[in-house]
Structure formats: structure tokens, C-alpha cells
Fold these 2 entries.
Entry 1:
Amino acid sequence: MKHLCTWVALIGLFINGCIGTETGNPPLTGEMSVDAHSSDPATAGLRSSEGGLTVDGVWLGTRELHFVEVADCDVAPTGVANVAPLAIDNHASEGALVAPLTYEVVPYCRMTLPLARQEGALPSGAPASLAGSTFVSTGTTPTGTAFEVVYAAERTIDLDAIGGELLFGEDEGFLFLGFDVAAFFEGVDVDGGTPNGDGVVVLSETENTALFSTFESNMNRGFELYLDLDRDGEPDTPEPVARGVP
Ligand SMILES: [Ca+2]
């Protein structure tokens, strides 16, 4: 019996070694809620207007999301993803997407978020311009003109820790990844754009390029990470713990 117990203990160690992490501990699990929101509805509101733009579409998906440890902050992340790829979806619709999260209790300096290109059949309700694109936002201006922002290029957004590091303790791996439509559209005079033949103001690399350029320079800082320890799918605090850097 003693030999059997020894073997069971050794097998246990072996299994722990296989599923463990660099710290030797198995990864902790949590959740990431993902949703668009607005920090300033007077600039851009979500599904309703408070005098600014009304945004009804924020279409994007990602490849794997990684937290980068402080010790490896200058290195591109490798290894197991902290969050599996997020399917391309409209994050301006009602309700947050909730994705499983794995993490360790180690200081992270950033999270990397590579946008995914839409390939194959379009998701239900998606605008045609999403085909081959990595980001599309749709809505209407205060004067009722429809608009579409179409971003076609590959882009990886680094959300840098505010205050130097992100450290999530046990039971603290509950986060909210937000896409702030007010940050995206700050200073973008969509009503000043030239509509196409369908009456839609399209902002892209080839249409209304000056407006698109302003949007693009805003874009990264609209990606924000907050704590959501109460797991209500909303940020716990007004200020994020990490934000996209231009
Ligand atoms: Ca919350």
C-alpha cells in the first residue's frame, strides 16, 4: 500500500507539473465581460442620442488575448492565451459578451488585443463593409445622416497598465473590457463628411480620409480594461486599470 501511495503522489506531482504555469501553480480562472459603452453620451451615445452621435454598431473580434508579465514587458507574448479569440460581433447591441479568463497572481504590465479580420460568411445583421475588415462602427449623426467607419488594416492594441502594473489576486480575475464610443469619436465631425451615393458618410482609408485619420488616432485609447469584481457586466470604477496606447 505504501508503494501505491507513493505512486499516486508522484502522478499527482506530474499532473500538476503538466498543467502548472511558470510560477508552478495552476492558472486561476475568472471572466471578462466585453461590451461597448460611452463615457460621454453628449459626444457619442450608445443606441440613443444625447445631442451627439448615436452609435448602434461596434463590430469587432479578436485573436487570442494575452497578459504580458512585467518581467517580459518588452517581448511579444507567447504561450497559452489568457482569453480565447472573441468572435466578431456587434458590441453596441444590448448585453455584454462574457468570456472565460485564466490568469496568474503575477504583475502584468499590459494586455495585447489583436483585432481579427472578418473572413467568410458575415455574422447576422452585419454591414457588408465588415467583409475583409477588422473594425466597423455604424450609427447616425444628430442631423440623422447614417455613417460607417470602416477599418481594414491589421491592428494589435496594447492596453498598458495604468499605474505601472496589473495584479489580480485570487477571486479578482473578473474584468470588463470596454470599447468607449465617446473616445473613438472625440473631435470627429461626422456631419462635416461627404455622403456617398447612398447618403452614408463613410470614413475609411479612401473616403473622408481626414475624418478617418482623426478617428484612427483616437481608436486605441477607446479600448479600456476595468475591474468588474461584482460581475454585473459594468465597470466597478470610473477609471480603467489599463487603456490602449496610440
Ligand atoms: Ca461591475
Note: The chain has a mean pLDDT of 91.
Entry 2:
Amino acid sequence: MTTNENTRTLGSTGPAVFPLGLGCMGMSALYGEADRTESIATIHAYLDAVPEGAAALLDTGDFYGMGHNEMLIGEALRSAPAEAAERALISVKFGALRTVEGGFTGYDGRPEAVKNFLAYSLQRLGRDHIDVYRIARVDPDVPIEETVGAIAEAVEAGHVRHIGLSEVGADTLRRAAAVAPISDLQIEYSLISRGIEAEILPTARELGIGVTAYGVLSRGLISGHFSRDRELAPGDFRGMSPRFQGENLQRNLDLVDALRKVAEEKGVSVAQTAIAWVLSRGEDIVPLVGARRRDRLAEALGAMTVELTAADLAAIEEAVPAGAAAGERYPEAQMAHLDSEH
Ligand SMILES: NC(=O)c1ccc[n+]([C@@H]2O[C@H](COP(=O)([O-])OP(=O)(O)OC[C@H]3O[C@@H](n4cnc5c(N)ncnc54)[C@H](OP(=O)(O)O)[C@@H]3O)[C@@H](O)[C@H]2O)c1
């Protein structure tokens, strides 16, 4: 599905984008304080790195900081060169219901809610359309056909360009694809989260649906920069994530040490090895990297020139065998919302 080396196409109906997307979540939420000026500078650096002729993919959610992330992206695009801003594609997730204190209380996928969420997002982003629109988690009370049908109406009205899905399983992929063309499934995929390989990825491929992979560094855990003594701010997702707790954390960091040896032999960083591995899994996969600083972004972009030979891939998978991660990828209550895990 590659158009050229600067782009990968999201599924058979989606847009062609730069092979690495920038996930902006951490600039507003979930990983502790972020620096606003540095966040905007990181978005600008990403836009700069995307060559002419390719589209830059910025990923967000309307609930990342309750609108904060969309407003930040809007500001970054307004202060970027017009030509770069025009080439930016924005992928937005919606549906999560929040509290003032930051809690998550469920998901709303009713058609009237979809239209409401969309109206607010367009306003916050300062755009007249969203490039890829998707519900973050399936609303258990609303058939996916109805939620996707509402987005399809927004496509017809010109407010949305493409329909995506997030963290859904194979059955839901099929049901959604029967309603309207789906560009991509956004789902966690990394050396230590390979659950999609059994059924979900083959189904997406059969249906011509691309994958935007998130958590390719497992939220920093396999970036090579995380350590046991890292202090996490209150509310940091990683403070609750099973993979970052006690013995699990130690076992997972042991895997990172094994990966570091492979990376060092190649003369690249651990993060670059982990991102390059995801890039190597198929031309239909676009990793989203959650860089929120320019130095981290530069490191991530460096993964695009890392060539992994068959021997490298074997060494990587020996260092981090499939299924070796200790702990689930979300706390139990959040696992229950994952259609992809049912
Ligand atoms: N659909 C969904 O359910 C869903 C869920 C989660 C995320 N997402 C999307 O996917 C995006 C990426 O997810 P993520 O942020 O959890 O994943 P990630 O890329 O696995 O992790 C990002 C974290 O890794 C650390 N890191 C260390 N070195 C890095 C490097 N060279 N480049 C980038 N990050 C580095 C950063 O923390 P430090 O800089 O502090 O070390 C950063 O906070 C999000 O921004 C969001 O848009 C979607």
C-alpha cells in the first residue's frame, strides 16, 4: 500500500500519510505535566520533518485534557507556516465521558452525541473538517452500526473525511465495515503488546482497513528512558498501569535491557529499535509516537532510517519474545471497555 517511501496509506480508502504519526495525548494529559511551549515546538518540528507532498498525521482525542489537546493543536497549526498546516491531517477520538476531577465515567456513541462531540471539536480545532473521526471505545449501549452511521452522515455533510475505529475486535470491525468504508483501526501494538496479530490484524487486512498503532513504546516503558526510580505525578496513567507496578515493572525492564543489547549492536537507541520493529510489521501500519519534546521526536524520527534485517528481527524477538510482558496493558476496569479484548 506504499505510495512512496514518504507515505503509507491508511487502508484501501484512507489518506496517504507520513509513516510516523504524532500522538499528542501526553501534551495535555495522562503522563504528568507537559510544557506548553515545548509541546507546540514539538508539533512544529514534526510538521517540519514531514516532506513536501506527504501529509502529517496528528492524533488527538476531545477528552485529552477535556478539549485542551485540541485547542493546543489548533494553536500550533495557526502558528505554523500555512503550507505545513494545510498538510496536517487530524485524527480525533471522541465519546469518553469525563468528570471535573478527571475521572472517566463511560462512553457515549449515540448518533446525537456524535454530532454534538463533532461540533465542539471543529470549534476547538478551528477547522471546518476532521480528517479521521472515531469513537475511542465502543459504547456498550449503542450498536456500532449506529455510531458509525452517524459519522458516515458527517462524511456526507463534509465535516469528516474518513471513519476510523479504536480498540475494537474482529467482529466489530466487520460490522462497522458493512456500514461505511473504514480507513484505519487505532489500537495498541508493540513488541510487548502483540494481541492483534492473532485475529484483529488479519481481519483488518482482509477488509482493507489500515492500522494506526499506539503505545509502540508501551507509554515509555520500552523506550529505554524509563527506570524503576522514575517519579510519577499523581494521575499519571503509568501509576495505575499493571505493567509499571512492582515485580511486573522489573520483569518488563529486564526485557528492555535485553533489547538494549540488540540496539547497541546496531548502533541505534532502544526506542528506535522498538519503533522500527512496528514499522517493519507491514506497510499498512502507521505507528503513532507520543513524543512531547523535540529531542524525543528527533529520536523517534530516526527510527525511519533503521533497517532491520531478518537476523536483527530474530534477535529482537529473542530479546522480547511475544507474550513476555508482565501485566495487562490496562487496569482491570479499563480492560473491560476494550472490545478488542473480548
Ligand atoms: N486509541 C487509543 O485507545 C489510544 C490510547 C492511548 C494513546 N493513543 C494515541 O497514541 C499516541 C501515542 O501513545 P502513547 O503516548 O501512549 O505511546 P508511546 O509513544 O508508547 O509513549 C509515549 C511516551 O514514551 C516516552 N518516550 C521516551 N522516548 C520517546 C521517544 N523517542 N519518542 C516518543 N516518546 C518517547 C515519552 O515520555 P517521556 O518523554 O516522559 O519519557 C512519552 O510520554 C497518543 O498520543 C494518543 O494520540 C490512543
Note: The mean pLDDT is 96.
